[in-house]
Structure formats: structure tokens, C-alpha cells
Task: inverse folding
């Protein structure tokens, strides 16, 4: 019974899922890719939508108020195709400036914990970034713009999106789809947007449902303090990537995603303790030899 007791008392890890943003989180801000995104958004506003006045200021305001410029543009009445927007903004990016990151790949592979992407970007952009970084095999699934914003409310996750996420399920959260205001925290006088995105709570609710995530046992990595503060209110444990200073809504701060092990050694320690309990010692077995 002695060994039986030891096998039965395997400690339950504090975390069973790692939830990651992509841009400026899995790669650093100084890579310059996000700056290229902003340039393309400005060009889209000018060349495709005909906005001429105070474009930089409008872009900044919409991003601040709605989480993404796309969501803000839809809110104030601009009509455009989502795929056209993503093609213009992300389809022309110089992805070659991103280089493979074997250090991060090894860190992620050393953790036998679920790892999930949660991004406001479209799935093609996420795939391009992961491919350039060499991280395409590090994540169980991707929650992207397409998952959060299906064209029809009755088809929140079609077969194509299901294939993009292992173990995904349809959301049962009322009010999801394109006919909702994804920003319940926007001023009541502000126009509503049909786009579901971080940092608003309904995006997090959908992500939890799609990936079957328990927020109280999940670490959330993001470079946006607004996203992290919403995540904290929703029960997530939060990690601010790109900063060395904690603030309200932040549990851990990492200057670089490479600092995960130094900041969170307990992730590896809990795994090692579990292995020690499961395999407490090697037992020598005598094999009789007959001459």
C-alpha cells in the first residue's frame, strides 16, 4: 500500500493552459512589423475609404476606443469587406524581418501544458508569423478573427474553423456573432461595432468557450495592458510581455517572452514534482539465473 498511496497523491498543477497573444508578444516590438501594420492601416483608410483629414489621429482614437482600428471603422459607418481589409493590411507585410526563434520554441516544447493562441488578427497572419518564427508546431490551436467573428450567427464555428482548433466547440454564450456590440465598456453614446475583439469581455468569453479554457487555471500572455486588465477581471492570471514593471491587472511582467522560465520557474517545478511522485525511484528486479 505504501507505493499505492504515493501514486495516488499526484499534485495538481496550478495552471493547465497557456494563452498567448501573437503580435509584439511572441516577437519583440522593435522587430518593426507592427509599425508596418500601422502604415498599411493608414494607407487603407486613405486609399480605400477616402479618409483625408486627421487620419493619424482618427486611427489612434479608434484603436483606443474599440480595440482595433477595423472595429472602430465599422462602428462609425464605413463599409468594407473584412477579407479585403486583412489582405491590404497584412497581405503586404515584410514577414521576412521575423527570424526563427529556437530559444522560444525549446521553452514552449519543454512545457507539457496546453498552449493556445488568442489574437485579434486573421488566421493567415497568425500562420505567417508562427511559420516565420518556427513555432507552428508549438500550439494546440488558434483563436483568431475568424473564430470570433463568423459571418452568420448560426454558424459561429464552421467546419473550416473547427479544423483550426483541436477540441473546439460551439459557443453557447448568448449574443455572439456579428450582430453584437463587442465593446460593452465603450461609452454608451459611442456607436456600436459588429466586430468581436480584445480587449472586450465578450471576446474573452468566446475564447474560453471555443478552447474550453478554465480562466482560473490559465496564464495569459499579452503586450496590451488593456487586454490584460480585462483578462484579469475574467479570472485569468496575467503576464505583461515587453515590460519589466507590474501594474494594476498584471500578475507578472516580462521584458521578453524569453524570460518565462526566470519569471515562472514554478511551471517547470510543478512538472518535476509530478514526475517525482509518479516515478519515485527505480526498482531493481532480481532475475534468477539457472546454471
Result:
Amino acid at each position: 500500500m505504501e507505493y499505492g498511496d504515493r501514486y495516488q497523491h499526484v499534485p495538481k498543477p496550478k495552471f493547465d493552459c497557456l494563452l498567448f497573444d501573437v503580435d509584439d508578444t511572441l516577437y519583440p516590438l522593435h522587430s518593426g512589423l507592427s509599425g508596418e501594420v500601422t502604415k498599411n492601416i493608414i494607407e487603407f483608410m486613405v486609399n480605400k475609404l477616402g479618409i483625408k483629414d486627421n487620419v493619424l489621429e482618427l486611427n489612434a482614437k479608434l484603436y483606443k476606443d474599440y480595440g482595433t482600428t477595423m472595429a472602430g471603422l465599422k462602428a462609425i459607418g464605413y463599409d468594407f469587406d473584412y477579407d479585403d481589409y486583412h489582405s491590404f493590411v497584412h497581405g503586404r507585410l515584410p514577414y521576412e524581418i521575423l527570424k526563427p526563434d529556437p530559444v522560444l520554441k525549446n521553452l514552449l516544447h519543454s512545457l507539457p501544458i496546453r498552449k493556445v493562441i488568442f489574437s485579434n488578427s486573421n488566421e493567415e497572419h497568425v500562420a505567417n508569423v508562427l511559420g516565420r518564427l518556427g513555432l507552428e508546431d508549438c500550439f494546440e490551436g488558434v483563436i483568431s478573427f475568424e473564430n470570433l467573428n463568423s459571418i452568420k450567427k448560426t454558424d459561429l464555428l464552421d467546419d473550416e474553423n473547427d479544423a483550426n482548433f483541436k477540441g473546439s466547440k460551439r459557443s453557447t454564450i448568448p449574443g455572439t456573432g456579428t450582430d453584437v456590440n463587442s465593446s460593452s465598456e465603450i461609452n454608451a453614446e459611442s456607436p456600436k461595432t459588429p466586430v468581436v475583439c480584445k480587449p472586450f469581455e465578450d471576446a474573452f468569453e468566446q475564447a474560453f468557450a471555443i478552447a474550453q479554457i478554465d480562466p482560473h487555471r490559465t496564464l495569459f500572455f499579452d503586450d496590451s495592458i488593456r487586454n490584460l486588465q480585462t483578462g484579469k477581471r475574467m479570472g485569468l492570471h496575467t503576464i505583461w510581455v515587453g515590460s519589466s514593471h507590474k501594474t494594476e491587472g498584471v500578475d507578472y511582467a516580462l521584458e521578453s517572452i524569453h524570460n518565462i522560465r526566470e519569471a515562472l520557474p514554478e511551471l517547470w517545478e510543478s512538472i518535476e514534482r509530478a514526475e517525482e511522485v509518479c516515478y519515485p525511484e527505480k526498482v531493481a528486479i532480481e532475475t534468477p539465473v539457472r546454471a
